């Protein structure tokens, strides 16, 4: 077992279906000065394949356990709401910290996300400086302040 704090670059699994949003997130991490191994999946089914090491992620080295998951709630095939419900029902996955990234500021959407097991909900800012500030804050809390379970290096 290896703790995310022992690794030079914690792995962050990002479930995001828009290439533009992926590029923006990579830019935001770079501007924030955060060294992370960002890995992207494009929908909920691919995320569950990654987490359960199925299909193209069957080899352990192709799918190390993430220290943190950033989850778009509105994705094709299997949306983030269904993914988090599946994760929280799975004893091997329920401990993983999952942060919802959304453009919605709706109190209803935020309440729903927390009620189904999201650990935190972050509204995607409209500009890069605000996004950088939010990601820095989020990173500091989850990777420095919070005590997280050790990251497993073997399959679930």
Question: How does this structure look, described?
Answer:
By secondary structure, this protein is an alpha/beta fold. It has a single domain, classed as Response regulator (Rossmann fold, 3-Layer(aba) Sandwich), CATH 3.40.50.2300. It is 37% helix and 15% strand. The chain has a 5-stranded parallel sheet with strand order 2-1-3-4-5. Strand 1, helix 1 and strand 2 form a beta-alpha-beta unit. Helix 1 crosses helix 5 and helix 2 packs parallel to helix 3. It starts with 10 loop residues before the first strand and ends in an 11-residue tail after the last helix. The N terminus is likely disordered. This is Response regulator. One of its GO terms (biological process) is phosphorelay signal transduction system. Keywords: Phosphoprotein.
What is the terminal-to-terminal distance?
A: 12 Å
Indicate the low-confidence ranges by residue numbers. Answer: 1-7
Rounded mean pLDDT score:
89
Spell the H/E element sequence: EHEHEHEHEH
Strand neighbour order, sheet with most strands: 2-1-3-4-5
In CATH terms, the superfamily is: Response regulator
Task: Produce the secondary structure layout.
Layout: E1 11-15, H1 19-31, E2 37-41, H2 44-51, E3 68-72, H3 80-89, E4 98-102, H4 107-115, E5 120-123, H5 128-145
Short summary of the structure?
With 156 residues, the chain is α/β, with parallel strands linked by helices.
Q: Which features does this protein show?
A:
Sig_transdc_resp-reg_receiver, 5 strands, 156 residues, single chain, Rossmann fold, CheY-like_superfamily, Response regulator, five-stranded parallel beta sheet, globular, alpha/beta
């Amino acid at each position: 077992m290896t703790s995310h704090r022992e690794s030079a670059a914690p792995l962050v699994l990002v479930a995001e279906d828009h290439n533009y949003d992926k590029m923006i997130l990579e830019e935001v991490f770079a501007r924030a000065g955060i060294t992370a191994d960002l890995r992207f999946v494009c929908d909920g089914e691919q995320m569950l394949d990654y987490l359960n090491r199925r299909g193209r992620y069957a080899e352990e080295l192709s799918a190390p356990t993430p220290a943190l998951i950033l989850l778009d709630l509105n994705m094709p095939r299997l949306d983030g709401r269904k993914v988090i419900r599946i994760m929280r029902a799975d004893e091997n996955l329920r401990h993983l910290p999952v942060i919802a990234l959304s453009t919605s500021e709706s109190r209803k959407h935020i309440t729903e996300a927390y009620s189904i097991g999201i650990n935190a909900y972050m509204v995607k800012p409209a500009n890069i400086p605000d996004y950088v500030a939010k990601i820095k804050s989020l990173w500091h809390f989850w990777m420095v302040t919070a005590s997280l379970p050790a990251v497993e290096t073997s399959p679930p």
